[in-house]
Amino acid sequence: VADDLRPTGAPRVPFVSATSKADASALLCMASKCGKQTVACLSDPMCKRAVDCLDECGLGDQVCSYICIRSYETKEFEKFTTCFIDRNNCLRNSATRPDTPHVTPTTTFRGEPLTWEGAEEIFIGHLYGDEGYSWLSAAGQNPAYDEFNCQYQLFYQGKARNSFWYNPVFLVKTLPDSQVNGASVWRGSDYRCQRLETPGEYLFTFCDNGATSKERWCIVEVDDNLEWALFYYSGAAVGPGQSYIGAVLGTRTGVWPEDEESRRRIETALQTRCSIPLWEMVQVDNSNCADPPLT
Length: 295
Fold this sequence. Notes:
Number of strands: 13
Shape: globular
Number of helices: 8
């Protein structure tokens, strides 16, 4: 959807900004506060490869960083990054969620005011149907999400009152010298979802290999029959110093809706509510998604 609609010469929008990079102070912090974890990591070939790979990527490239982590992750690496990034913030980063554009959730669903129960019905989508997942991403704005194939989204209610969880499952193509020799592997994350002020607006929190992220998500537009739903998010990971925004179109089948009315509603919502032109939405490759681990 994206490349053929992008105006000639239009650049990719910078969806991620990093606020710091490792310097002498960061290295001193690493040695003095995370010495044990550093020695253990550098003594482990896969952990050392992960650190070297991340150094080559730079902090602003989420896709490259994530592929490094998923290719070489070990327990030693998780302990190192937890100490270096999360516990001691050796990079001295400070990142905040972008507040522009300020996107508000849709106020209605099926002709009625949107309630929290209705919002969670939308997020949960088709989880308890034949599909076995809430949504399959058809397209998204942020390359850090859209670089990965077969993005299954699973939303579900927890046991505690008003508790809600998000578990994305997706394919990652690892690097040739990874533990699985460059194979594609299924990966996932666990997000805790907390209600904010308005129905359809949530704070998503997760920690992955020592980096904690917080994201504000909202439902922008949705089909009454739940054939598709458009979500917007803005987030920040303080330790890595990353701030980012994006939008995700989830559908029942993982393809764009074919009817003109749905396409018109999606394009209008993107442009007028999210300040996102249609050409920024990148198609997700769902062509080879056999046997996803959805349970």
